Amino acid sequence: MVGDVEVDVLVVGAGPVGVSLGALLAQAGVTALVIDKEADIYPLPRAAHVDHEIMRIFQAIGVADEVAASSRTPNRYDFLNADGEVLLRFEGADRLGPGGWSGGNMIHQPSIEMSLRKAAMQLPDFRLKTSCTWVSSEEHGDTVVSRVRGADGEQSVRSCFVVGCDGARSPVREAASIELDDLQFDEPWLVIDTLVRDAERLPKINLQICDPARPTTCVLMGSGRHRWEFMLKPGETAEQMLDDQVIAGLLSPWNVEGAINLERKAVYRFNAKVAKAWRKGRTLLAGDAAHLMPPFAGQGLCSGLRDAANLAWKLAAIKRGANDSLLDTYQLEREPHIRAIIGTAIMMGRTVCITDPAAARVRDQQMLAARAATGAAPHAPANPPMAAGCIMGGPPAGAYFPQFVSGAASSQRFDDALGAGAWLIARTAVATVAGGPRGFALADIRLDPYRDQLLRWLDKHAVEAVLVRPDRYIFGAGEPHKLLAAWATQLK
Ligand SMILES: Cc1cc2nc3c(=O)[nH]c(=O)nc-3n(C[C@H](O)[C@H](O)[C@H](O)COP(=O)(O)OP(=O)(O)OC[C@H]3O[C@@H](n4cnc5c(N)ncnc54)[C@H](O)[C@@H]3O)c2cc1C
Fold it and tell me: How far is the CA of 273 from the centre of ligand 1 (A)?
């Protein structure tokens, strides 16, 4: 045993969720040790898309500009049938979403993970230990004693909480005997990532080809890369499909020979599962450890990062004296959101993964008729606002508070002006106390570029003030003193 380590939070797993959680904790003055059994970042691309809300979390961590510089923002996501007719079309992902960034951002996950690690390592309260495997945790009163194994032998880590961000197989979840609710989606797909040599010959939008002969996905990634995914048919094995000749055959209808080079290939099973408990005592789960979904909505990583943003401020509040029952609001708030998103991802998956030609014809007829009837492009289904948890009253409490933008090319952002933590934004000045939400009156000079937008928001909801949580969800709106009193009660 090589010495003990003491830290506020031990984060198991330095994937994107674990590192983001560690960074957000450290920014809030919570010491975080993030460990990973691997020496390096997982090198193979997985996520190709993050939404505006995730870019806002990246902004808080300080990596959004870097991510935006290498991401691409296609304006369409089309579901086509075998004849090339549009069954479903989502438009506008290139426009600003409520988070103040483009609605859809096509990315390269390992590059983002590298940026996150670099930013987190600048924070004095963040520590990363790689080649270090979590072995076990035991609770002793208000301390968790964990055993971890690194190249230098076994060590014990004493922390107030342990968060398993340790991926789909999550040893932390297993050890806590937390079961998964299986939402019955299980389809094998071949994923092919390519390096682009001639972008002009590649599609400029994201595509789902709903061809029963071979359901196929073709999407942009971060600049310089493009992805194809092909569903395996009954009887096909991963080994057969990973053969380069087979891959060349699958790509031939796209006429991209010479325009791309194969970077990697892998067969995944796309599943949908939710952990039945996200907290057990002082152990919590986040990211893929807590939920899995097929990638058709591009939301697995996004959901994990929302977990991190939700957990980070609650753990920081507990360090400052809030009761740890605040953590019971974590699953309460996040699970309905996750289940709605998984529902969308499964709906998209079931639309694409039809291999019976007769069933595909019926689907095509129904979807073409629905599209002809409405004419309009559907919006991606809205995520439900929180109906319960650490919020005060009904709507707009629990909804997402937008990030206002201003300036040339929307380059000034509200969060940068106001900074981290909870905000009380009121029409007129309100006295706040140290350690509570920071107060901003509309006359505040920092709000100059956003005053009109803010005023419109307050007028629309006919309220005097809004209290925004550190994860940018609305705690409540109304009379400022009542908001501050309710916040103090919930966080005591
Ligand atoms: C083909 C594909 C496409 C996808 N597309 C998208 C998309 O477009 N958009 C999107 O939002 N999501 C997408 N996803 C999902 C996304 O990639 C995952 O949700 C995300 O990577 C999960 O991050 P995580 O940090 O929770 O887990 P991981 O990235 O899996 O990290 C878990 C970490 O825990 C470590 N670990 C495990 N056990 C231990 C232990 N005992 N001790 C120490 N460390 C341990 C592992 O080494 C690993 O580094 C896609 C996934 C796939 C497979």
Answer: 14
